[in-house]
């Protein structure tokens, strides 16, 4: 498990996020929190996370996040139920719900 100090050392996932959104936008899967992405796994945030880049998702403790992809570097891509925002976040900040 990585610690918070290593959180900003991820690869740039901006293109991953854009590609996923484009691929699924026709099916309205990348919509707001009122739409649960198809085949998403539900996770709960264990810790708050403040985005360091534009493609990242803010997490507050106990947020529910619908994870649509797990990247090889330990970062996840998903949608926050609270905010409806879509982006990347460190996978070690969440737990399967």
From TrEMBL:
Coiled-coil segments on the chain, per record: none
Residue intervals of the SH3 domain: 38-97
PROSITE patterns: SH3
InterPro entries: Endophilin_SH3RF, SH3-like_dom_sf, SH3_domain
UniProt KW keywords: Repeat, SH3 domain
Entry-linked SUPFAM superfamilies: SH3-domain
Pfam families: SH3_9
Protein name: SH3 domain-containing protein
